[in-house]
Design goal:
11% strand; binds NADP nicotinamide-adenine-dinucleotide phosphate; 8-stranded parallel beta sheet; 331 residues; 10 helices
Length: 331
């Protein structure tokens, strides 16, 4: 096996591609049922291939996804960069998923829970999952910095924050990673966030690089989505928008045919081509798909193919339902 490429993150050594673990326990219910044994095999396969960044959050499940990751990495802890997140569960206020809370009190409770479930004494990359409008970012990052000083956390990250808050956070404690949805059909970070991240020397983690599975071409109709699947209620997958958005997938497929690879590999290769300081974390709970996705590292799209992909039209429908806790800042 060739040595896994490394990402160009200024502060953290990590593989060029990570593995998103959320769908192993939560959110998506289509295609394959929850299967912890296959999920653990998928994580082990990732580590065997040199993919060391595993992405989870206390809210995935909640809790069971961190537990699964903890089980999977037991005995292999030194091969893994564990990334997890706090901030959308309020422990002092009933542990309900969906209460934004980045207060010092909540962070101190959250980190100890995550450490326990992950069966480790340190988290490599600890993210604020969503901003808390009631807690100044300086206060949040101040406490996150204390966790670094205490050895519980190695690096700090922020998910879905806008530039003003990035600057303020970074002034309190160096931020190592910013995580955003970034893919062929979600290009928002390009305007301001990517240039700022580069100016400040912060790496970017691209979540949902497969457009939550849509860009792979495997979901052809809404009926392919299980009734309990989060995507059923998402505007980009709605009855009104589905067919229009499918024309984007058809284009991705055409480029994939041209390149002799799969649509999933094209979607990942396009993100990889946007810079070696951007690490995609495609999510899968299946070994065969992990292999397919990792092989995207060997795909070299031509300038013409990249131009075609970058010129794809924007999808119809917002990526989050406005007003839910998960709605990113500014949307
Ligand atoms: N910071 C945040 O707010 C945030 C939000 C969402 C997600 N995330 C993180 O980002 C990670 C990745 O995002 P995501 O999982 O939401 O979306 P994604 O990576 O764009 O797509 C995942 C979906 O694609 C399917 N899939 C994966 N590889 C495939 C392939 N080769 N062919 C066909 N289908 C394939 C998966 O199904 P199978 O599992 O059945 O293969 C799953 O349904 C998550 O796991 C999570 O860790 C972070």
């Amino acid at each position: 096996m060739a040595r896994m490429e490394r990402a160009a993150f200024p502060r953290l050594d990590l593989s060029r591609l990570g593995l998103g673990c959320m769908g192993m326990s939560a959110v998506y219910a289509t295609d394959s049922p929850r299967d912890d044994a296959e999920s653990i095999r998928t994580i082990h396969r990732a580590l065997d291939l040199g993919v060391d960044l595993l992405d989870t959050a206390e809210s995935y499940g909640p809790y069971i996804n961190e537990e699964l990751v903890g089980r999977a990495v037991a005995g292999r802890r030194d091969q893994v960069v564990i990334a997890t997140k706090f901030g959308v569960i309020s422990h002092p206020h009933g542990d309900k998923v969906g209460t934004l809370d980045s207060s010092p009190e909540n962070i101190r409770l959250a980190v100890d829970g995550s450490l326990k479930r992950l069966r480790t004494d340190h988290i490599d990359l600890y993210y604020q999952h969503r901003i808390d409008p009631d807690t100044p970012i300086e206060e949040t990052v101040g406490v996150m910095g204390e966790l670094v000083a205490a050895g519980k956390v190695r690096h700090l990250g922020l998910s879905e924050v806008l530039p003003d808050r990035i600057r303020r956070a970074h002034a309190v404690h160096p931020i190592t990673a910013l995580q955003y949805e970034y893919s062929l059909w979600t290009r928002n970070p390009e305007a301001e966030v990517l240039p700022l991240a580069r100016r400040l020397g912060i790496g970017v983690v691209a979540y949902a690089p497969l457009g939550r599975g849509f860009l792979t071409g495997r979901i052809r109709t809404r009926e392919d989505l299980d009734a309990s699947d989060w995507r059923r209620g998402n505007a980009r997958f709605s009855a009104e928008n589905f067919d229009q958005n499918m024309t984007i997938v058809d284009e991705v497929k055409a480029v994939a045919e041209d390149a002799g690879v799969t649509p999933a590999q094209v979607a990942i290769a396009w993100v990889l081509a946007q810079g070696d300081d951007i690490v995609p974390i495609p999510g899968t709970k299946q070994v065969a798909r992990l292999d397919e996705n990792v092989a995207a590292l060997d795909v070299r799209l031509t300038p013409e193919q990249l131009r075609r992909l970058s010129g794809l039209r924007t999808p119809v429908g917002s990526r989050y339902e406005t007003g839910t806790y998960a709605t990113p800042e500014g949307e």
